[in-house]
Amino acid sequence: MAGLPSQLTAQEKLADAGQQVFASNCAGCHGADGHGGERAPNLATVRSVISKSDDDLESIVKKGLPGLGMPPFAYLGDDKVKSVVAYLRVLQGKTTATPVTGNSTAGRALFFGKAQCSNCHMVRGSGGFMASDLSVYGDGQASSAIQHAVVTHAPSPTSRGVKVTTKSGEKILGALRAEDNFAVTLLSPDGSFHTYDRAKVAAIQYTSESLLPKDYASRLSPTELDDLASFLITTAAQASATEKPAKRRQR
Ligand code: HEC
Ligand code: HEC
Question: Which helix (H) or strand (E) holds 201?
Answer without folding.
Answer: strand 201-206
